[in-house]
């Protein structure tokens, strides 16, 4: 049976979370979460996101309720930080060795993309950790207000790397082998002719419109780019 992973996307709507250096935590959390969702889904995991846009409000209480109703194998909450620190933080429930293992895997896979670890520690004080029934981890990927963190996390592509790292951690935790995506960059094309068929979906005069379409396509799992 497919494993289920519930991904809580921190903050939302009128609650922006941390804000610094023109970055809004609410928006960054969603980019990481959608990427994580896409990678998990491609590996046969039944992934669920607590929200799909930045306009709806999504309180921690609603998230926990949805998460417990879904009865997932993993309850994964995505946040980012501010307040003067440097590096990632991963929290788990003190009485759950599985949560600790998943948090340590998050550290391993975010270190692999260049992020330093600040702490992997019990976080029983967090609602996400103490109110979810499933094995739970809460991530604080990087500090929006830290110069070193900003260097590796202030673009959408870099934030997607965090989402990918989280997915790799979850897959390893679940015992599912990670497979590199194929067929969209020409490198590992499995077709016989070697010719790539490119599909164009629109051209815009306004960059914002192009960016919106890319965002929409990415949310659906396509590897869209602006040229
Ligand atoms: Zn937050």
Short summary:
The chain is an alpha/beta fold and 227 residues long. Helix content is 38%, strand content 19%.
Give an overview of the whole structure.
The chain has a 6-stranded mixed beta sheet with strand order 4-1-5-8-6-7, with helices on both faces. With 227 residues, the protein is an alpha/beta fold. Helices cover 38% and strands 19% of the residues. It contains 7 helices and 8 strands. The protein folds into 2 domains: 4-174, Aminopeptidase (3-Layer(aba) Sandwich), CATH 3.40.630.40; 184-227, no CATH class. The termini are far apart. The radius of gyration is 18 Å and the shape is globular. A hairpin with a 2-residue loop joins strand 2 (19-20) and strand 3. Zinc ion (ZN) is lined by residues 10-11, 17, 25, 79.
Overview features:
19% strand, binds zinc ion, alpha/beta, 2 domains, 227 residues, Aminopeptidase, two-stranded antiparallel ribbon, six-stranded mixed beta sheet, 7 helices
Q: What is the number of helical segments per DSSP (H or I, 4+ residues)?
A: 7
List the helices and strands in order: EEEHEHEEHEHEHHH
Would you tell me the structural class of the helices and strands?
Answer: alpha/beta
CATH architecture level-2 label of the largest domain: 3-Layer(aba) Sandwich
Mean of residue pLDDT values: 90
- The amount of beta strand, in percent, is 15-25%
Which ligands does the model contain, each kind named once?
zinc ion
- The count of DSSP E runs of length 2 or more, i.e. the number of strands, is 8
**Biggest sheet, open or closed, and with what strands and sense?**
6 strands, mixed
Rg of Cα set? 18 Å
Taking pLDDT < 50 over at least 5 consecutive residues as the criterion, the unreliable ranges are: 186-195
* Distance between the ends: 41 Å
């Amino acid at each position: 049976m497919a494993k289920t992973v519930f991904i809580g996307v921190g903050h939302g709507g009128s609650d922006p979370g941390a804000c610094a250096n023109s970055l809004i935590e609410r928006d960054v959390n969603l980019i990481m979460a959608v990427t994580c969702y896409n990678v998990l889904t491609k590996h046969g995991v039944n992934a669920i996101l607590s929200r799909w846009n930045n306009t709806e409000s999504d309180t921690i209480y609603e998230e926990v309720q949805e998460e417990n109703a879904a009865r997932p194998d993993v309850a994964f909450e995505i946040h980012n930080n501010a307040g003067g620190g440097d590096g990632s933080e991963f929290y788990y429930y003190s009485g759950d060795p599985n949560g600790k293992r998943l948090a340590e895997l998050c550290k391993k896979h975010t270190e692999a993309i260049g992020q330093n670890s600040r702490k992997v520690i019990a976080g029983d004080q967090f609602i996400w950790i103490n109110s979810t029934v499933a094995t739970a981890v809460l991530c604080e990927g990087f500090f929006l207000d830290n110069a070193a963190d900003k260097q590796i996390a202030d673009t959408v592509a870099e934030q997607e790397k965090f989402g990918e790292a989280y997915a790799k951690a979850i897959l390893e935790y679940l015992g599912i082998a990670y497979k590199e995506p194929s067929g969209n960059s020409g490198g590992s094309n499995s077709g016989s002719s070697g010719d790539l068929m490119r599909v164009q979906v629109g051209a815009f005069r306004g960059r914002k419109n192009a960016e919106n379409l890319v965002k929409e396509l990415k949310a659906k799992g396509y590897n869209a780019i602006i040229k």
